Amino acid sequence: NAGVTQTPKFQVLKTGQSMTLQCAQDMNHEYMSWYRQDPGMGLRLIHYSVGAGITDQGEVPNGYNVSRSTTEDFPLRLLSAAPSQTSVYFCASSSNRNGYTFGSGTRLTVV
Amino acid sequence: TQLLEQSPQFLSIQEGENLTVYCNSSSVFSSLQWYRQEPGEGPVLLVTVVTGGEVKKLKRLTFQFGDARKDSSLHITAAQPGDTGLYLCAGEGSNFGNEKLTFGTGTRLTIIP
Q1: Strands B10-14 and B5-7, how do they pair?
Q2: What's the first-to-final CA gap in chain B, in angstroms?
Q3: Could you tell me if B55 and B72 are in contact, meaning their C-beta atoms sit under 8 angstroms apart?
Q4: Can you tell me the mean pLDDT for B35-48?
Q5: I need a surface site. Which of A23, A80, A104, B99 has the fewest CB within 10 A?
């Protein structure tokens, strides 16, 4: 099994550009989440989903959109990139919320 | 927002020593999860504890969930260089409809050979 696959692994954006970070899981997990990890800040929840068609905001949702049209995919869209969005982004999924499987991350730099 | 505080933030000890990492909150959690993260990788789940007072062992690692389900500890016996990494605790909200997993800021552990 591939688990949780995130693409791209690295990305450089200019301020104001938009892009979509892709996340796909092949474990038929209902729960999926997006986190960002910054030095000294731990992982902060951006958006999460408890099933296809259902999404909700996390701790730091501003500047990001998500959708969950299928169980497998949970893309994260940056609407207009800002330097403050420079971070490492992790997608995670779970079948029962008692433990999540994480992807290997996308390292994003906004210049 | 449910906050989780981990201590210590950094810990560097000699191989063979014992150590304990703490994860504390004023909030009640339905479960408490521990992860280990290595550079350039995503966190990997070590254990989940769900019952107040629960103790789980994973080889040399012992995890305990506080009786009130507000805190947890991770004890490592006879630390090995392979234990080096960032240890993260994460709590699942206890309220219906609060399906959020909140992470602590982490403990960066270095085991010196």
Answers
A1: unpaired
A2: 40
A3: no
A4: 95
A5: A80
- Which letter does DSSP use for residue B57 in this model? E
Under an 8 A CB cutoff, do A42 and B104 touch? yes
pLDDT value, residue B96: 54
- Mean pLDDT over all residues of chain B? 92
Which of A43, A92, A104 shows the shortest C-beta gap to B41?
A: A104
For tokens 């504890």, what's the residue? B49
Least confident residue range of A76-80, A95-99, A107-111: A95-99
- Number of Cα atoms under 13 Å in the Cβ half of residue A75: 13
Between CA A86 and CA A32 the distance in angstroms is 22
B99:A92 CB<8 A: no
